[in-house]
Structures are given as C-alpha cells and as structure tokens.
Model the fold of this input.
Amino acid sequence: MTLGAARADTMADLIRSHIEAIGGRERITALKTMHVVGHVTTEGRTQKFDLLARRPNSIRVTTTAEGRTLIQGCDGTVAWRLQPDQSPQAHRMQGMEATDFMGEAEFDDQLVDPESRGYQLDYAGEVTYQGHKAYKVLVTTLRLKPYFLILDAETYFIVAQVARQTDASGQTLTKETRYSDFAPLDGVLLPRRFTVYLGERQQSETVLETMEANVVIKPGTFALPDTAR
Done:
C-alpha cells in the first residue's frame, strides 16, 4: 500500500469515527432545523444573538447590542445584511464578507459528506493538542484558503480549527477557533462554546445558551428582504 493510499484509509476511518461519535448518520440527517440563543463577547463588549438555521446552508441571525440591531441572513445562495435602526433597505453581502458568512451558514461540520459539499480532506498526521493526543486534518475548498481541523483522539470531536490570517497591518497570524462544552441536541453532540484566538490574544468567545431542534420556520425567513430585491 502506498503512503497516499494509507493516508486516504486513515482519513476515511476518522470520518467514520467522527460521525459515530457525534451521534450517527441517522440522527445527524434527522436534525433539519435549529433555533439558538446566545451571546458573543469581543474585547469586553457583549452582544446577544438569536439564530435560526435550516439544512443544508440557510441561516438568519439577529444580533442586538447597545440598543442597536443587525440582521444577517443567507438562503443558500444570497447572503445579506439589514440594519433596521439605520435603514429599511437590506444589502447583499459582497466579496469575502459573503464568502465567510455563507461558510458559517453550513449546517453540518466539514466531516459530514465532505466531497458532496466541495471539501477535500487529507490526513496530516498525529499531534499533541493542549496535552492530548489528536489528529490533524487539512481542509481544502474553493471558497477559502486551506486550513486545519484538530480531532481529539479519544472523543473524535473537532476541538479546533487553525488557519493563517493577515491582519490590517499586513502581519500574518494564526487564527485558532476552539470548540468546547459539547452537549446533545436531539442526539447530536454539538459544541456550545467557540473561543477565537488571533495569535496569542483571545479575540472573541461565543456561548450558545439555549438550543432547540427541528423548530418550525416560516417561509421566506432566510430570503433577501423585499426592500433589497
């Protein structure tokens, strides 16, 4: 067996183990929609958010802070934003803003049916992450620059995503998103806390306070509002 074939077999085993660990394919597929309430803290400032999501990649997030409201949405094709306090006109997102938001709109993680969703996954070796044995996976997609996922070797949960990012000054830093506080939602284990580091500095922390599975969502919830059509 060649090294490439061995790595492909290892990657296939990691995918199978991950799917089983977070609840199994049947439960993952049965989870169609979700309603999440939580908050994001960035540099000491906290924003509340209310999120609706639908498989495979529709999302609507309403964020409130200091008396202001921001609504962002994606129907799977068009990403948009609306600031009703400033204008009734919604705007289509453009460029990397749209690319990043549409990536966040994906309902499943990258190890669930990766090929059909445009992800190439390559096993990148065994590492030690925060004192624990882990596996490193290289993720390549047309939308974004390549990045790594870190899978805990005991739980097979995705515990981190690591990428390189250039800041406003032109300096290239490591951006690391850590996933923790895993809890079941209709039998599917999902992280409830997302902590983002840029270099050595903590940039933000997102906490999911409540989650509801398979909620009824009104038609048109994720579509670009009529004012922007």
